[in-house]
Please model this.
Amino acid sequence: MRLIEMQVDRIVGPTHHFGGLGVGNVASARHAGEVSNPAAAALEGLDKMRLVASLGAEQWILPPQERPDYELLDSLGFAGRDTGSLVDALDQAPRILSAAMSCSAMWTANAATVCPAIDSLPGRLSITIANLNASLHRVIEAQATEADLRSLFGTVATVRTAVAGGSAMRDEGAANQMRLGGPDNQSGIHVFVYGDGQPHPHKHWPRQTLAASQAVVRNLRLDPSRVFFLKQHPRAIDAGAFHNDVVAASHHNLLLFHESAYQDSGQLDRIAEAYREAFDRELVRVQVSENQLPLANAITTYLFNSQIVSPADPSAGPVLICPAQVQTDLRAGRLVASWRDERRLFSEVHFVELGQSMSGGGGPACLRLRIPVTKDQLDRLPKRARWSAALDGQLREVIETHYPSRLTLADLASDDVVRKAQQTQRRLREILTTG
Ligand code: SUG
Model:
């Protein structure tokens, strides 16, 4: 029996803007304050979902989270739950307004950490929501994400509340977790990547702590003998790799990573050894050197944030979906071509335009949460959130008709813009949750 990997994306919301809020995220800082295009952002996301579905993969869709987050504004002293509170926040603390309006929940790779039933000691598909404690605009996602995943999975999965503990327990979900295994329903090996501890980065605050990863491992009831912890290199964090998935990618028996990704490469040998023992075959480790692609280019192109998808036909090799930026970087483009044509790691390579997400520091892989399920589990899920051409058409119509194509932070204190955004959010939620 094979495990089927669901790709769960969330529609970018109508208040998408460039707040520059991403901690240690160079793209987010670079584009802070630019005029955004929420309609284009949402359509680019839908285009990627359509491509993934066309490959025969399981594509599922969540609606945007509700913005403004009046609860946040209220608790930070901007009471009233009306436009007045938004105008006050814009005047006195624009970053708080930006956080309360943020659509960062679009980056679902940070929504949760997941383990398939076969990997969890009680034999249950298990999901631990990420607390996203490192940033004001992301910590507000957890509660709604929990509700969304509970409603999607019902009794099929155990969905756990995010780990408590404030900043000591900073958890950013699957972006810092890699499951190595095979296509079969056989228990996998989990690698958890964290950034705190000696030696520290100089410029940026590590977003994932070892203590949080350890707590997630306990919550998911993973077999400790199948778990590894790997420290991110402070150099990578300082260069802007605020998550592991900016400098590494994994799929079944494949591990792609930049030579500056990790502090202790000896740990990679131990992981490869465990893989060999468990699966009786080699882990395919592809290390990209600084010469082949400088760390700075890995981060601007988001090469490692390419999305790897297994097509429906089990005999076809995995497909690589890269950000368009990879194609225009000579070295990154050359690497990808050699992975496809010489090393035959991928059967196809696609390039996707995700300019709006990339300007916030999120590539194709940031936009999806992988959830490995059995066919039986998949059959028990409510189909209303599963990609179909009809659903895609319905969602596009709402976006094309009601989303703004030009937005600044100041617009987000406008009564008209906010009312329209709220109506549109409600409509999308209705389509995706009541079908
Ligand atoms: O947390 N950007 C997100 C990008 C998340 C990317 N996810 C993964 N690598 N898996 C972040 O930094 C930008 C928000 C702004 O600029 O307003 C932001 O939150």
